[in-house]
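Incident log, structure service

09:12 report received: a user says their structure output differs between two submissions of the same chain.
09:20 pulled the input from the user's history:
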Amino acid sequence: MNDMTDLIPQKFPFVMIDQLTSSDDHGAMSRMTVLESNLFVEDGYLKEPGLIENIAQTAAARVGYMAMTQNNPVPLGFIGAIKDLVIHELPATGSVLETEIKLLNQVFDVAIISGTIRSEEKVLVHCEMKIVINPQIS
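09:34 re-ran on a clean worker, output below:
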């Protein structure tokens, strides 16, 4: 999938993933190149809010992809909580981020995911997120 705005509710300049590379019932993977023009790049590095949003948008793209395959509108989601956030390193511009999310648990419209961002096989960020999905708003 090339146009992420078909899968997520965010629009430019707030899109923090370039491509959904895989998606299934258990998780998803995305890719993003950190550009100097990115809203969250400062002094040549993607800052913490951009990293958190990258994980959340990978989860959103998974849900959006599932909705599209069932001919449903892409739902809006919200970060409900972030737990155990560890940022080992901020990625520099030009870095290619590979983000993996795994669905740990889902009860009704609340999902718990783990998210990991890697660049060149090195783990940069890891956390758990609680995401609330609102199917009534799209």
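09:41 both user submissions now match this output. Likely a transient worker issue. Closing.
09:42 reviewer note: The longest strand covers residues 122-134. The radius of gyration is 14 Å.
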